[in-house]
Every structure is written in C-alpha cells, then in structure tokens.
Amino acid sequence: MSKAENRVFGKRRQQHIIILASGEKVRHMTIRPWMAALGASFIGVVAIGYLAATSYLVLRDNLIGATMARQARMQHEYEDRIAALRAQVDRVTSRQLLDQQLVEDKVEKLLAQQMALTTRHGKLDSLLDRATESGVIAPTIPVPTDNPAKAADHASVSGGLGAIDALLGKTASKATGKENRALGYAPLRETTADRADRVFSKVTLSLKNIERQQMDRIQKLTIGASETASAIENILQRTGIDIPTEDSADAMGGPYLAPSLGSNFETSLDNLDTALNRLDSMRQTARRLPYSNPAPGKPITSRFGNRIDPFLGRLAMHAGIDFRAVTGGEVRSSGGGTVTTAGPSGGYGNMVEIDHGFGISTRYGHLSRILVKEGQTVTSGDLIGLAGSTGRSTGPHLHYEIRRNGDAIDPMHFLNAGMKLDTLLD
What we know:
This protein has helices at 33-133, 149-157, 160-167, 170-175, 192-238, 264-288, 411-425; strands at 7-8, 11-12, 16-22, 25-31, 300-302, 305-308, 315-318, 321-324, 330-332, 337-344, 350-357, 360-370, 377-378, 383-387, 397-404, 407-409. It has a domain at 300-425: Glucose Permease (Domain IIA). By secondary structure, it is α+β, with helices and mostly antiparallel strands. The strands form 4 sheets. Strands 5, 8, 9, 10, 11, 12, 13, 14, 15 and 16 form a 10-stranded antiparallel beta sheet that branches. It has a two-stranded antiparallel ribbon with strand order 1-2. The chain is built from 7 helices and 16 strands. The N and C termini lie far apart (168 Å).
C-alpha cells in the first residue's frame, strides 16, 4: 500500500489536489492534511494577532483618554486650591494691613494722650513751685513714662503682625520657649485686632488714671490754697482790715461774647492759679500789717487803756502797750511798710513811725537809738532801733502803738491774730 494513501474504515481516502494552469504549463499540488492544518493555524494566528492589536489600540486610546481626563481633573483641582489659597492669603494680607492701620491709629492716639499729659505736667511745674513756696502740700503729680512710640517705630520697620506682636509683648511668649504660630488661612481664636484692643484699652485706662490723678491733685491744691487764703482773710477782717476785692464796675460795655469755657484741665489750672494768687495776696497783705511782736520774748508790763499815770498819779489813757526791755534791746518792725517818722517826737522821745497801708500805722517810742530813716522801706522783723528810756519815761522799755486812721487801737488784737497767722504765713 502506497504512503500517499490513507484508509478510513478500510477505504482509501481521496487526496485533494490543486491544479494550477498558466498557459501551456499545468502544475498540480497535492494538499496534505498537515498542510491544511498549518494554513488554518497560520490564519488563526493572524486573526488572533489582528484582534489583539485592534483591542490594544482601542484600549490604549481609552487609557490615554482616561489618564488625560484624570490629569485634567487633578490640574483643575490644583488650580482651584491655589486660587482658594491665594484668596485666603489676600484676605489675611488685607486683615494684616487693616490691623496694622488700626494699631498705628491707636498708637497715634496714645501718643497724643501722652503728649497732652506731658504738656500738662510742664504747665503744672510753675504752679507746683508756687504751691510749694506757698506752703500748700503739693503731692507728686504722675507723668506717663511708657512710650508707645517704640511700637510705632517698630511698626514702620517690620509692619503687619510683627509690629503688633512686638506691641503686644511677643517677647514674653518667646521667653517661655513657645511661639504662637499658625497658617495664614487658619482661623485664630483671638485675632490680632482683639489682642491690640485689649492692650490699648489697658494703656488708655492707665493714661486716664494718670489724668484723673492730676485733676484730683490739682483740685486738692486749689482747695488747700483757697482754704488757707480764706483763713487769713477771716483773721484780717476780724482785726478790722477791709480786703479790697476785684470789681468789674469800671467795665462800660462792648459786644457780648459767650464766656470761654475751655477744657476741664485748663479751667482747673486757672482755678489753681487764681487760688494761689489770692493766697499770695492775702499773705503779702498780712506781712505788711503789724501782726508780729516788736519785742519777741519780752513780757508786757502795761496794756492798752486807762491806767494811773506814773507822773501825775491819776487816771490817764495809755494809747499802746509797754514791753519790758533793757537799754540797747532790739526793737523790730511788726510789719512791712514805709518809715514816716524817725527821730525825736515829744513825749515819745526817739520814735519810729511806720505806715503799713490800709490806714494802719505803728509807733515805737522811747528808743535809745534809731536805725532807720524816713522814707525807708522795711519788712516784718527788720531791726529798726534799740530800746531805751528817752522822752516821757520812767525807765527803759518799749512803748508800742497801733493806729487806724490816726486813732489808737489795742495792739493785742493784732498780736493775738499774729499768733494764729504764724502757721498760715509759713
């Protein structure tokens, strides 16, 4: 049996032959089973490869599209986040600029208040010196020492929250080793403006306390000067001295203008100045009048009024008081004024007469020596002569008179008033 033959169920299988004719040439080819199988396999492989390539291309396009879409979404999200962050940064920057402006405005206000208080203290210096010289108790007037300008200078250099942190004492937080740091877009429990408001409120309250203390102490000085001046005036009036008061009767008219009220501080200063002027005037008046003792430490041997005359032995008017003194003892002026008489004067012997104004004059008689001259101005306590026994006298002593408009009055009224004035004139 030939190799080209196959048997199926005992029969030979017919082989497939392919005849190829080209012109006169005829060729034939027998198709073997393995050749058919090989061709079918090749066609299958090609088909599978084509299908695989087609699927790959389709899937690749889908993957590329999905990837691009995902990247586009990520880019959009990233851009949205960047835009949101930029908006938050802009808000924070705007808030910082606003806070900085608020801080600068408040610093300017504090500087203005401090300068006002410092200026006030400068105006008070002269009045305080006068009050001290007048013996009015002058408590220390506080002056602001903290300078908020430091914070303003720092604000001009660093700006923004740095200046505010410096003003709010950020160094204190550094001392603890901790710093309050937060992202610009993170919400804070207490804003910088709130912290600045809290600190500025404390500083403003402190300045207001200083201002109130100044006003209170000015008022105390005013009250003290007024009370002292009134006390002196009462004593002068009880001794018959009429104190002239300011009178506006000479004003003859003019356009009406509303009174100038001024500030409370300026008004208080004016009141204090007026009270000190009044006190100075009262003291100057009291020092001119004869309230001092012309013979300090010397006893009184004869008082004012009717007494037995030592020469005639009968009742006579004694127009003054006598102080026991030794020849050469010091005689001092009992007040300020102008010497009108300095020389021998009848029964007074060597006499000095001093005009004190207000119609009041004093006489010092029986002097052994006169140490002043007519027309000379003396002050209270000046040495004007030495005691003696010249004129109508039975022994060395000082005869002392006080006269109002030429009429003799009891010098004891002035001497007693002078003891009360001692504490008010210092």
